[in-house]
Each structure stands twice: as C-alpha cells, then as structure tokens.
Amino acid sequence: MQAVTGETDCYGKSANELGTLIFENGAFTGTLNRVTGYTGFNSDPSEQDGYFLPFSISDDEEVKMYVKDSAKQVVCDKAPIVNVVFLGASKDVAEKATLKLVKNDKTTTISMGGITFNDGITKTKMRTKKESE
Fold it and tell me: pTM (2 decimals)?
C-alpha cells in the first residue's frame, strides 16, 4: 500500500486537493482536507462533501476494502489505478473512521491516527474601512 501524492488524478481531484499523506509501517500520517463537490468520486450527494483517503495498492492477490460496514467490501484496484475511500462528511466522523483491508479472509486495520483533518476554514482578519484607507 502507498499514499497517493502530488497531481495524481483521484477521479477528478488531485491528490494534493485531498491532502498530503505518507504511508509507513502500516500507518498513514499527514493531512486530509475537507473537500466539497467531489462528484467524480460518487454520484450519491451524501458522499460528495467531506474527507477522502486516496491510496494505491500493488498486490498480486485480490484485496478488498471497507470503512464502516464489512458487508459493503469492494475490491481494491491495483496500482497504478487509485483507490479512494470516503471517511466521513464531518471531521468528527472522519477522525473515528478506520480503513480495513481483507486478503484471504484476514482483515488488517490500517492506522490513521497520525492524520490531521483540515476543516478548510481559513480565518482572515477583516479590515475596517479606516485600515484600508
């Protein structure tokens, strides 16, 4: 498994737009950005705004993934195709999400404890009319 970085296309958003991640020793670290209007990921409006984890996997055997419901496992695409998972619409939900990979009926939980979730709100100082004169 690898983090996807830079300008790599992740179904209409670049990896940089989703965040900056590193995958080492079975864990992700870095930052995920809150993304809105991500229609390339899913046509379901409830999964178009929030936090998305891009990764690639190069494994000879079939690997499945899921975040919330093991009954909804999907087969991972092999690298160079990017996989993207929806972690949640809000920071609170995304922080609690876990990515599970299933290979040969063995489930591995991928740690995401080192990820910071950026809510995308930039605080700026409002200038008064007097300051701008």
Answer: 0.84
